[in-house]
Structure formats: C-alpha cells, structure tokens
Design goal:
The complex is a heterodimer of chains A (331) and B (286). With 331 residues, chain A is an all-alpha fold. Chain A is 72% helix and 1% strand. Chain A has 2 domains: 34 residues; 231 residues, MetI-like fold, CATH 1.10.3720.10. Chain A has a two-stranded antiparallel ribbon with strand order 1-2. The longest helix of chain B has 21 residues. Classes of the chains: A mainly alpha (331), B alpha/beta (286). Chains A and B meet through helix 1, strand 1 and helix 7 of A and helix 1, helix 3, helix 6, strand 7 and helix 7 of B.
Amino acid sequence: MRSSGVLPYHSEVMPLPKLQRIGILSDRFAAFIIKGSAFVAILSLILIFVFIGKEALPVLTSPEVRSEASLSRLFLPQVHHAGEAAEFSWQPISDVPKYSLFPLFIGTLKVTLIAALIAIPLAVAAALYTSEFAPSWARETIKPCIEVLAGIPSVVVGFFCLMVIASWLQGAFGWTYRLNALTAGIGLSLAVIPIVYTVSEDAFSSVPQAFREGSIAMGASSWQTASRVVLPAAMPGVLAACILGFGRAIGETMIVLMASGNAAVLSWSPVDSIRTFSATVAAELGELVQGSPHYHVLFFIGAFLFLLTFVINLIGRWWVGRLQKKLQGAF
Amino acid sequence: MRNRCVVLMLVSALAVALSGCGRGPDSGEQHRPVTVKGSDTMVILAQSWAENYMKEHPGLTIQVTGGGSGVGIAALINGGTDICNASRPMKPAEKNQVRSRHGKDVKEIPVALDGLAIYVSESNPIQSLTEPQIKSIYTGKITNWRELGGKDARLVAYGRENSSGTYQFFKEHVLNNEDFAREVQTLPGTGAIVNAVSKDPASIGYGGIAYASGIRVVPVRKDEKSEAVSPSLATVKTGQYPLSRNLFFYTIGEPSGEVKSFIDWVLDREGQKLCEAVGYYPIIQK
C-alpha cells in the first residue's frame, strides 16, 4: 500500500480506505453542486428572458395591441391632433394613448451618461490612488468605506437625493426644476462608484509587481509608473469595470424614480426632468390589468433594456478582448 | 478532514432547505386573513380600521396593503384580494372583467369622503385658485406664477404616477380628461409630493388632506365668481368644496362572513368616527 496521501482518484486496483472514499465522493458532490449552481444562473437568465419576451411579443404580433402601440408608434414621431406637428410623447393613460419611447430613451441616456461621467473618473482615480500611492492605513480605511457605499439600499440613496442633494443644488444654482437629470445622475453615480472602484482596484493590484519595479529601475517616478505602466497594463480590467458600472446605471430604478422628476420631457438639457425606462416600468406596471396594450408595452421596454445591456456587454467584451490581445502582443 | 467539513455543510444546508419546505400550506387554515388591498390614499385609513377591528375581534387578521387603486382593482380581478380599496370608481371595463372572470357583479361600497387638496409652498403668497386655473396649470397653459398674480417665477407642477387613483380623479374631475402636460413631474406617493412642494417655493402639488403638513393648502374656487373654499369637514360634506370624492371598498359579489362583518363595522358609527381621526370625512351623516 502506498504510504503517501497523494492517491490517484481513479484507483480501481486498490480498495481505498473508507475515509478517503468518502473524501472523493464528497469532492465529486461538491463539484456537481458548483456546476449545478452555475447552470442555475444561466437557466434563470434564459427563463427571465423567455418570460419577458413572451409578454413583450404581442407588441409585434397581436393586432389588438398593435392598433394602439405598433412599432412605428413606439419609435417614430406621431401626429395626435390634426393640424399639430408630429411629436414624441409618452402618455399611456389618455383618450389617445401615446407610447413614444423616444423621450424615455433620451432620459435614460442622459442620466446614464451623467452618472458615468461623474463616477468613472472618480472611481478609477480612487482605485489608482489606493493601489499605487496610498499608505496602508489609508488603503485600509478607503477600501471598506467605498465598499460600504455599495451596500446602501438604493431607496435610501434616492431619498437622500430627493430631500438633501436636490435642495443643495437648487439653492446653489437656482435651477427651475429641483428634480432633474443631474440630481438623479449624481445619486446614480453613488451607486456606480463602488462597482467601478472595486473591479478596477482588483485590476490594478493584479498588475505584476515586476512591472512597477522595472519601471522604477528605469528611473521613472511613481506617478509615471502608475500612469504609463500600471494603468495601461490594467486597462482591460478598468474597461470591464466601466461596462459593469454602465449596466448598473441603466438598470437602476429606485434612485431615478425618486430623484429625476419622472417627467417625459424631450430635451437635452441636463437640468430638465427626465423619465427613464426602468422608472417607467416600476411606476406603471403595478396598476395594470394583464393583457392590456400598456402592459405589453412595459414588457417590451423590459426586453429592450435587457437587449441594450446585453449589447453593451457584448461590445465591451469584444473591446476588452482586443485590448488584452494588444497588451499580450506587446510583450 | 476538509472534505468531511464540506459534506457536513452540504448536509446541513440540505436539512435547512428541506425543513423550510415542510411547513407552509396548512398554516393559518383556521383563520384565513381578510385581505384589503389598493389605494395608497386609503392605506392609513384602512390600517386604522383594521387595527381597531382586530382589537375588538381577537383571533381575526386583516391584512392591509397599498400600491394604488389600480393595483387593488387588478388584484380584485385576479382574485388576489377580498376587499379592494379604491379612491376612484371602477371603470365599466374593469367591472366587466370581474363579471367575466368570476361570474358575479362587483359590489361598490362608498366608505368615506376625501377632499383633494392643492398644495403650495408655505412661502407662496397666492390666496386662492379657481378650478379652470388649476386645469390650465396642469395642462401646461399656465407656466408662470405671474399669470396667477404671483411672483415672476417658473411654475413647477408635481403630480402622481398614473397608477394612482388620485391621478385618475384629478385627470377626470379637474382636467376633464385632457392630458397632463409633459412637464408635470410625477412622484411615487403623496408623501413625496408634500416633501417636494415644501422644499420648492415655486411649486404646486395635489393630494389628500390627511397628508397636508409642512405646506400650505390653497382654497379653491369653482370659478371666477364663486367664493374660495378650503377643504374641511363641513365643506366636503356639503359638497361646497369642489375637489371632493368618494373612497370605496369593492368586493366580488355581496360580501359575506368575516368580510361582511368587517365592512358593516366600518360603515357603523365606530368605523366612521375613525375617518375623521385620520383626516377624512365620514360618508354616513348621523
């Protein structure tokens, strides 16, 4: 009998001691459970999409729904009163229901861009600082603080925006609308920062130490090392962080529902009210009788959001992959 | 050793999961709770009815949830609630759905009166507004307080989400079913509107009287010639105040059993007394 503990798993010649047999079985069981849970995640994703897709489909197929909300009504400007100019309008409860998605799209885009513009530079800079420059006590304080930010329920962030940030901003700048895209975008950035920070911090700290040592040995300052060696080397990870953050910003509901004013105004000004896709679904779905055109349109919005994040992720992955290849080619 | 730990963990996880499955269907069989669901405006009122009724009838549970009149009506149609709270009358189409799903007519029971208040910031000097003026504000024809005799400031109008009974009532009774202006900001809940209006000197909002704190309620005039009326017990009861409405309970068919005795209690003296305690008005005048 071999004395070492390193037994091959498929040893059929020698009967294994009982304890080790249990060990192997439990390993397999654990592997099965882990594999299983990975499949459950994929399966639930597929099921969610099938369910949303099924409820959204009547927008394309059912004549009853299409008479109120066909694709052209959702995406093209419509003339609602004879003699008036064609317009984009979201007014689902009306004598003539109006389902234009364009104002909602502009609103979603505006608030997401604002949140990304605030959150990404801040979070990446903070991550670079904590991984490259901060003394260890600062790192030990900053990291958990930002991570706690991720644990704050978004309804609390939304309420904070509604009550406090909105008043500050209006007091400081005197905007007409307290609740606007910028207020919501600032609130949203609070939800995005922790994600971008955590993932890009990981990316920075996984850059091999040899890179930094080499750079410093060549006479580069620590800032030059951070900005010209570590940052480019970690770029794929930072980009992945930005994409995750973007996805969170598009899907976030409660903050925008509370802080954006929810008026579907068609304007590019960052200090006008907006209404986003996610807030619209959250605010309107509860009331609806199943099967009405309005109900199906909201599910169509859900499917649209799903596809939007999917496409963004796809493009992001492709980009990350290209960057990685380029980086590997350099060495 | 580690493997044994894994096995132990998995087995205990499984045990916990299974023990969770065991209970469930048979619990609460003896006393099925009476569920009341619907209007956010009526949540406070229904809650205090339920609490007091349960105090007098121990062992009976009444569950009150909000979500909006539309939510309650949808739940009634789908069979998800015993009683639906609604701050607007059910539409004929919705009544038809109940009939076709359940084979019974809807029973409409007015249970209280509410006045819809118009809120402005406490610093706003405006004395009164006429109904046509309010309509013009919310349809976007008036956009500056100057046009109403106030300061030169852009008017910011707050309203409710379209799932709310208050939205429906306002649209039907004040806007005569015209569309709200796109600029009207919608907020989830009357509480949020009160908060926003209290912080925004150039704003206007609407909602139940029960919520009115931190803001000023503007008296309303039917038209140019009539007198300005503030919402109060007397003016809502007599119908002098123009923006008043019924609050309803809806059931499928005639209520029976515990549901019926709860509704009877609500309509009796004690239940009706509670209306005033939370800022609404009794429907039965004794």
